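A.,

Following up on our hallway conversation. Structure tokens first:
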């Protein structure tokens, strides 16, 4: 029944009861009738009051539900409650719209959260109260933490310099920062923007690891330098070697015709011959030295293919087996069937250089030990060569992969720089940790092949 018609009938009945009550009181003496009409009038007034206050109660409940984002309330009219059916249906329609809007908002938030979580760049949302509102997987991998820190206080325990940089970073500003984590040095590029959500201001900060880019540029600069130096030196050595050979031939001819008759001339020609021989010998040695560095700058393009890491270890061990007498050599690969996609021959050369360096560092150790290990961590395959040799000073460690640098007498300074270049050519990273008297640990890190990642 329509609300207006129901209200009109209630008012008409109330008016009729009032008139009857007045007539009965004035014209009759029926007391029982008067009491009955009075009770009926009271009941009608209560019914009208209930009908009118129901609207206020439902409106108050509706507004309270909206103010508290409580969209679980139901405003469907009860059966037979025709007077407020339209109002209840209108409230229910509005609540349903709110439910749909909140569902869409939650879906968008879940999609955005999943998108940020899978970004390859580390992302951090920082609130005004130094709470870390969100940190994705790339951030956790970058900081080597199982879970993202909840606030900057927790972050300061691991990376105090990074935490202070996040506080000082202003919107639109970029900052390059060098951090050390578990013995690894990384160069980070930080960028900041401001977001406002629900009346609150947040810093959205991206942290990009540019260490690989810097290493690649450094390697390219060294290659260019070596290429130019090799070209210029070899161009100068060619005429020197040729002239030395020619002069030696002329000197030998003079000895055969005239030197036998003049002893003093013979002695002079011998001295000149020795000088020419020294020039020629050193020129050829310098030629071979420069040629080795020229080959360093011209490593072939890798031919990546999947292979088992333990096969790589076994082959490398076979190549150095003659030097392993008396050395406690251990190999560990977890999982045993761990596979890597790279140029296996090039990585054999890189590991061979690292193992030879470790063996050279063990000559004064009474209990020499080398461990070759591999494991899977945070979607990357880690290969490690560790020894208990004499170790290196911080200054030596910093120069370890620089071409021409060596701590060995007679060393060429080419082995470690070649290993580094091979690792980078195959898409990996190389890090070294060492302390005097505590040995050296070198880790090669490569991205896990995608097919194997899906299998996990």
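Then the amino acids I'd put at each of the 456 positions:
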């Amino acid at each position: 029944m329509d609300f207006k018609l129901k209200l009109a009938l209630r008012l008409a009945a109330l008016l009729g009861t009032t008139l009857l009550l007045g007539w009965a009181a004035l014209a009759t003496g029926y007391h029982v009738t008067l009491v009955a009409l009075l009770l009926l009038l009271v009941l009608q007034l209560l019914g009208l009051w209930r009908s009118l206050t129901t609207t206020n109660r439902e409106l108050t409940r509706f507004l309270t539900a909206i103010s508290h984002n409580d969209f679980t309330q139901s405003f469907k009219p009860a059966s037979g409650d025709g007077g407020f059916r339209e109002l209840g249906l209108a409230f229910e329609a509005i609540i349903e719209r709110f439910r749909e809007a909140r569902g869409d908002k939650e879906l968008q938030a879940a999609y955005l959260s999943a998108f940020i979580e899978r970004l390859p760049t580390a992302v951090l949302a920082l609130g005004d109260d130094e709470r870390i509102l969100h940190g994705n997987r790339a951030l956790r991998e970058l900081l080597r933490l199982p879970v993202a820190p909840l606030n900057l206080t927790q972050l300061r325990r691991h990376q105090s310099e990074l935490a202070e940089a996040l506080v000082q970073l202003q919107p639109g500003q970029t900052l390059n920062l060098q951090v050390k984590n578990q013995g690894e040095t990384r160069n980070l590029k930080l960028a900041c923007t401001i977001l406002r959500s629900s009346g609150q201001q947040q810093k959205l900060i991206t942290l990009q690891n540019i260490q690989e880019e810097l290493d690649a540029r450094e390697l390219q600069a060294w290659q260019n330098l070596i290429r130019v130096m090799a070209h210029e030196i070899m161009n100068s050595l060619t005429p020197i070697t040729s002239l030395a050979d020619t002069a030696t031939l002329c000197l030998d001819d003079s000895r055969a015709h005239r030197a036998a008759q003049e002893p003093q001339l013979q002695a002079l020609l011998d001295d000149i011959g020795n000088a020419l021989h020294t020039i020629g010998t050193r020129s050829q040695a310098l030629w071979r030295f420069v040629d080795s560095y020229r080959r360093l700058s011209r490593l072939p393009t890798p031919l990546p293919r999947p292979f088992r890491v333990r096969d790589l270890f076994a082959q490398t061990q076979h190549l150095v087996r003659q030097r392993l007498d008396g050395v406690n050599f251990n190999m560990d690969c977890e999982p045993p069937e761990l596979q890597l996609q790279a140029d296996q021959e090039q990585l054999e050369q890189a590991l061979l250089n690292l193992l030879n360096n470790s063996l050279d560092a063990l000559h004064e150790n009474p209990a020499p030990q080398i461990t070759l290990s591999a494991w899977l961590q945070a979607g990357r395959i880690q290969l490690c060569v560790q020894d208990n040799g004499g170790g290196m000073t911080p200054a030596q460690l910093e120069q370890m992969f620089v071409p021409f640098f060596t701590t060995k007498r007679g060393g060429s300074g080419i082995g470690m720089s070649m290993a580094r270049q091979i690792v980078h050519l195959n898409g990996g990273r190389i890090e070294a940790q060492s302390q005097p008297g505590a040995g050296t640990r070198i880790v090669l890190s490569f991205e896990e092949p995608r097919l194997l990642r899906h299998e996990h």
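The radius of gyration is 44 Å. Curious whether your intuition agrees with the design.

B.
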